[in-house]
Amino acid sequence: MSTVALHPYEFPAKDVRENFPAPLLYIGWEEHLMFCAPFCLPLPPDMPFGALAGQVLPGIYGEHPDFARIDWSQVQWFRSGQPWTPDPAKSLAENGLGHKDAIRFRTPGLAGIEGSFS
Question: Among 30, 34, 77, which residue's Cα sits nearest to residue 53?
């Protein structure tokens, strides 16, 4: 079922890039439902992708008991639901990430809280 506007619906979008301190990036951790939704963070486009694991993700996911056990060489990345291999040495922008893009990562062998205490 779709929505149909009864009158013209014209207004300036409020979530455009210019209204934020940096492009927004949505980041989610597969199978880790302690976090009910991806985090949305303003991240500078020139930040190296590799800085996510070392500088950004510990601050948002570090309290999870699985986080310290992540083998970053085995992490599987997804962009818009498709497998994706980012270059950690290149910037977010050079990896093709822009305002309001969504990425997710899967950590093989780590299955969330249920798997953390077995």
Answer: 77
Length of the chain, in residues = 118
Residue 104 to residue 72: CA distance in whole angstroms: 13
The structure's pTM equals 0.85
Q: What is the dihedral of CA 33, 54, 47, 89, to 10 degrees?
A: -110
> Quick one: how many helices (H) and strands (E) in the chain?
3, 5
Residue 67, class by beta-carbon neighbours within 10 Å (0-12 exposed, 13-18 middle, 19+ buried)?
Answer: middle
Give me the torsion for CA of 38, 43, 49, 51, rounded to 10°.
Answer: -100
**Each residue's pLDDT tens digit, 69-81:** 999 999 999 998 8
